[in-house]
Amino acid sequence: MNPIKFDHSKEYDLIALGRAAVDLNANELYRTLEATKTFSKYVGGSPANVAIGMARLNKKTGFIGRVADDQFGNYILQYFARESIDTSQMPVDISGSKTGLTFTEIKSKTESSILMYRKEAVDLKLEAADIKEEYIAKSKILLISGTALAAEPSRQAALLAIEYARANNVRVIFDIDYRPYSWRNDLETSIYYTIAAERSDIIIGSRSEFDYMENIFTTKQTTDAEVAQRWFDYHSKLVVIKHGADGSTAYTAAGESFAVKIFPVELLKSFGGGDAYASAFIYGLLENWDVIDALEFGSASASMLVSAHSCSDAMPTAAAIHEFIKTKKEEYGELVARV
Ligand SMILES: Nc1ncnc2c1ncn2[C@@H]1O[C@H](COP(=O)(O)OP(=O)(O)OP(=O)(O)O)[C@@H](O)[C@H]1O
Ligand SMILES: O=C(O)C[C@@H](O)[C@H](O)C(=O)CO
The Carbohydrate kinase PfkB domain covers which part of the protein (predicted)? Predict the structure, then answer.
């Protein structure tokens, strides 16, 4: 049973807030960045990837975020327009700030890493004045990417957006999305993540991201169930904890727990799975599926993405995910991802 109640009278399915950036993924595989000569350019930025994933799944999607006054800013706006993502709340920043860049290094069949250029990143220039309550009120969901909390003025903009959502029966999804490059220290990260998480209906993150968030509370090793309970004691109804190649778990405030494994694929890069996971999982919730079915859908999309060269371009349609699941179940059995 889906524990999240959406107001289905609202126009948008999801509005994402945070960074829209650019990925430059190495074309030469199994080399270090030092030895890489060419890259493929994709739209990137975790919340942008999730928004693209939602749009690919035919959900009406909007975005709140600033873009740079340069070719990369134009590229992002044009890409979003082609994907039918509303860009009315994506002001062009004229302060000279730059689009965040992420270089993905595919070092071996099992190892990849990212190098992020985020100095003066335009996404962190988002201001509270950019946040319109009447826009947010039109959506079933507001998705907040944790990196939007890393610096001012983006931090206050994100926290204001959360308050507007809560005042207008909009479900808040907090995708923890930890990227170290923009934070000053771990305590700051933990404090502001906690402020957002306390106000969110759904929290999604990898286990290590939850641990960052818990820093101010405890340093002892807690179970996934204990992690989830902490946030149920505030406001959350659903907590999803991802464990990379070990799959993922979900807990509801009503005391239910679920787990799924990964779908077997040939790994190309270990990045991008989380954004695909989030968009497909949220799609399942919006379709009022049971949590376990939404988890399986998210896990399938994630596995498809870690075997793809891009993140945004490779975001699959619902039909493609269903076909992927069907094929894997024929090959590995009905319970391929269910534990
Ligand atoms: N080797 C793998 N094979 C198949 N699926 C995988 C693999 N690694 C990760 N996944 C899938 O991707 C999901 C997200 O990966 P992870 O737990 O690393 O989250 P994340 O750090 O948020 O991802 P991202 O790097 O996109 O930010 C996992 O829960 C799993 O479903
Ligand atoms: O989140 C980022 O800014 C980097 C992403 O664009 C990249 O695709 C990735 O690492 C996915 O998680």
Answer: 14-317
| DSSP calls for 68-128 | ESSHHHHHHHHHHHHTT-EEEE-PEE-SS-B--EEEEEE-SSS-EEEEEE-TTBGGGG--G
Question: Quick one: tokens of 123?
Answer: 């996404």
Q: What is the DSSP letter of 235?
A: T
**Which ligand 2 atom is at minimum distance from the Cα of 19?**
3
Distance in angstroms (rounded) separating the CA atoms of residues 263 and 316 = 15
| pLDDT attached to residue 214 | 85
Check: CB of residue 44 under 8 Å from CB of residue 304.
no
Contact in structure between 120 and 42 (CB atoms under 8 Å): no
Query: Token digits for 300?
Result: 């399938």
Domains present along the chain, CATH in parentheses:
12-332 (3.40.1190.20)
Other CB atoms within 10 Å distance of the CB of residue 98: 18
Q: In what order do the strands lie in the sheet with 12-17?
A: 86-89, 61-64, 12-17, 139-145, 171-175, 202-206, 238-242, 248-252, 257-260
161 phi and psi angles, rounded to 5 deg: -60, -40
pLDDT at 338: 87
- What average pLDDT values come out for the chain (339 residues) when binned by 10 residues? 91 98 97 97 98 98 98 98 98 97 94 95 98 98 98 98 98 96 92 96 96 79 92 96 95 96 94 96 97 97 97 98 97 87
State which ligand 1 atom lies nearest to the alpha carbon of 272: 26
| Ligand 1 centroid to residue 310 C-alpha, Å | 14
Q: 206 and 277 in contact (C-beta within 8 Å)?
A: no
**pLDDT score for 304:** 98
Q: What is the pTM of this model?
A: 0.97
Pocket of ligand 1 (CB under 6 A): 206, 242-245, 248, 262, 265, 267, 270-275, 277, 299, 302-303, 306
Tell me how far apart the alpha carbons of residues 20 and 102 are, in angstroms, rounded to a whole number.
Answer: 11
Q: What is the pLDDT of residue 215?
A: 78
